[in-house]
Structures are given as structure tokens and as C-alpha cells.
Design a protein that fits this description.
Order of helices and strands: EHEHEEEHH
Shape: elongated
Largest sheet: 5 strands, mixed
Distance between the termini: 43 Å
Helix content: 25-40%
Number of helices: 4
Radius of gyration: 18 Å
Number of strands: 5
Strand order of the largest sheet: 2-1-3-4-5
Structural class: alpha/beta
Length: 166
């Protein structure tokens, strides 16, 4: 199986086009919904949404290679930190459909002080027609809703990043 890199390596970054560096911090499932994969899904969805932003280089915490640190310092690029939490996962059932609503919060902070610069909130609902067993549908709907909630929160990311770096 090929290796899939969600966050590009420092050698893949086109440094002349980079204006901001975002370090991905902790991404946690703080909801009462127990699915261990949701915290990792939150991190991968945030990473995926950051990749499409122009002028932003993204690295995971503790994984900035020395050559990237040199470029960041040489170009005097502002470094920000993004931490996230899945705050609520709320399953609902009625006679016709089952739905799961997810709410996320993403905190944008400066580095190294970790002063909060912006909060991005998002929510989404995944739904499907109600059928048979509850356990087989609930986790996929939660993942679908979480992806939508992250997209919702990330709609304001470009503006938040540029404002936070000033």
C-alpha cells in the first residue's frame, strides 16, 4: 500500500509562496460520544482543509524539520498554532430518519506565546433514512457530520489566519 501524506514535507513546500505557517496542535474528542477514531478524523479533516489555503504551510506539532525552521526564520514568517476540539456529538432518531449533529471549535493562537487570536466554530448534521440497527449507522453518520462541521468552521480560516498574523 502506498503511504499517504496528509501534511506535505518541508521539501514539498514552495517557500516563496508561503506567507503564514500553521502548526497543528492537539485535536481532541471532548464529546460524550465514544469513538476513538473521531479525534484523528478531526485532525485529518483540519489538515485537509488547511492544504487548500493559499500561502499557508502546515506542519504537525513537533514535526517541523530543521530546513523548514531555517526557511521560517529566514523569511520571518508568522507562525500560528491551531488546536481543535469536537465539543458535541448528538445522535437523534425519529420515525423516518436517524441523524447525528457534530459541533467543533478550532482555536488559533500565536506562537510561542499561545495567545488566542481567533476561534472558529462549525456544526453540521449527517442524516439517513431510519432502518434496522442503530450501531451500524451511528458512527458513519458521526464521521460525515464531523467532516461537515470542520468544513463549516474552516470557511473563515483564511481571514482568521491573516488577521491573527498582523
Amino acid at each position: 500500500m502506498p503511504t499517504i501524506a496528509v501534511v506535505p514535507r518541508a521539501s514539498d513546500v514552495v517557500w516563496p509562496r508561503v506567507h503564514y505557517v500553521v502548526v497543528l496542535g492537539s485535536m481532541e474528542n471532548r464529546s460524550r460520544f465514544h469513538d476513538d477514531s473521531l479525534g484523528e478524523l478531526l485532525a485529518s479533516e483540519v489538515s485537509r482543509n488547511l492544504l487548500v489555503l493559499r500561502g499557508v504551510a502546515t506542519f504537525r506539532e513537533g514535526q517541523i524539520p530543521p530546513e523548514a525552521e531555517r526557511e521560517i526564520q529566514r523569511r520571518r514568517l508568522p507562525k500560528l498554532r491551531l488546536e481543535g476540539s469536537l465539543n458535541r456529538v448528538e445522535p437523534r432518531m425519529d420515525r423516518r430518519q436517524m441523524s447525528v449533529r457534530c459541533e467543533v471549535s478550532l482555536m488559533l493562537m500565536d506562537v510561542p506565546g499561545r495567545n488566542m487570536r481567533s476561534v472558529l466554530n462549525g456544526a453540521a448534521t449527517g442524516a439517513s433514512p431510519r432502518s434496522g440497527a442503530r450501531p451500524t449507522q451511528e458512527p458513519p453518520l458521526a464521521r460525515q457530520a464531523l467532516s461537515g462541521a470542520v468544513r463549516s468552521a474552516m470557511q473563515g480560516a483564511a481571514h482568521a489566519i491573516s488577521s491573527a498574523a498582523r
